[in-house]
User: Fold this.
Amino acid sequence: MAGFRTHITVSTLCGVGYGAAAVDPLGFPSEAAVLAAGLTGVGGMLPDLDSDSGVPVRELSGLAAAIVPLLLARRLLASGMTHESMLATMGGLYFLIRYGGAWLVRSVSVHRGMFHSIPAMLIAGLVVYLEYRSPDRAVRLMLAGGVMIGFLSHLILDEIYSVDFNGIRLRLNKSAGSAVKFVSPSWAGTLTCYLILGGLAFLAYMDWARADAH
Ligand SMILES: [Zn+2]
Assistant:
């Protein structure tokens, strides 16, 4: 069983289903649905960012480096930046995420640690929600739901098949129960994860309240 390919296949299929459901019956515009489907597919890769092989980190940091500046473009434009400083910021962000982000993830993560957990899934959803500054809250929730569905599909697959990234099949009883979890044996990892989750939840709450106030 090819771990990485299996994860991508399943999360992509989930994304197709989710995107289709977003259009009909949920009635979202098809562009938003396509974006949601893509996020669901990417969500299925996220937990294996902690993989020691380095492949998911390389792939995803490249993807994030390209996409995050694009997602931020709306906010940069709104801030009244000049065209040149905007380009410089986006270029800087690319290198920061591509190399700095990859280095950071590699140095803090333990394979099958807190990256494979329910709070990490919520973090992914909150990041998407906060990052996508659309005035349409329903679209933001729908996109956040997409990345979480992809993430969850990964956790469940790991749980069922105990597939590792390289496709090495571990003994089921050895790693079963290690993916869909709330805490890891490392208290520092667990604490960090919940601190990040708490911080993001607070930001999302503030954002929600601010939108209500307008
Ligand atoms: Zn995994």
Summary: Residues 47-48, 116, 154, 158 surround zinc ion (CB under 6 Å). The mean pLDDT is 85. Residues 55-110 form one domain.
